[in-house]
Design brief:
CATH architecture: Roll
Radius of gyration: 15 Å
Largest sheet: 6 strands, mixed
Order of helices and strands: EHEHEEEHEH
Number of helices: 4
Structural class: alpha+beta
CATH topology: ph1033 like fold
Length: 153
DNA sequence: GCCAACGTTGGC
DNA sequence: GCCAACGTTGGC
């Protein structure tokens, strides 16, 4: 079982958007970065947990906890010419992009990046490094537990 | 809106 | 295979 952090821009897809979906489940599609894809494709398993992180907004931070409920399969948006995620070089026989499905586990209070930066225990988190643009990053189990403690306090 | 940092593209 | 140019991301 692994822990992750998954970024989303709330103006495009927020935690409340997920909350409103039937089954509170969504395909994490549209990822077009090989490193993030490989995390989903090769390392994510059903039962893994992830922080849902709001980026590129007035109050960036962790907004909730989600669970991986389906392992990676081809991202359907790559085959759709109407989609902004369409990839002409991908085919159904040879897909390039994969996504998992995630389900909301818990909506938490907004734990802002400003607050996360205050803890030296979290200083090594990828999401706190300047220039980090990777939308899916692994979270160390100790960091995961530490953040849960903050949320429960 | 700014700007730094990163990933990708494409010419060579 | 290199690397400059470009587009995108993301915090402030």
């Amino acid at each position: 079982m692994r822990y992750w952090l998954m970024k989303s821009e709330p103006s495009k897809f927020s935690l409340d958007n997920l909350l409103a979906l039937p089954g509170q489940t969504t395909a994490w599609d549209g990822v077009r970065n090989y490193q993030a894809r490989n995390f989903m494709w090769k390392q994510m398993h059903v039962g893994d947990l992830a922080f849902f992180y709001h980026s590129c907004c007035a109050q960036p931070g962790i907004a909730g906890i989600v669970e991986v409920t389906r392992s990676a399969y081809p991202d359907v948006t790559q085959f759709d010419p109407e989609s902004r995620f369409y990839d002409a070089k991908a085919s159904r026989d040879n897909p390039r992009w994969f996504n998992v499905e995630i389900t909301l586990k818990e909506k938490t209070r907004l734990l802002t990046i400003k607050e996360l930066r205050q803890y030296s225990e979290l200083a090594r988190m990828r999401v706190l490094q300047t220039g980090n643009r990777l939308s899916i990053t692994p979270v160390d189990p100790d960091e995961w537990k530490f953040i849960l403690k903050i949320l429960q306090a």
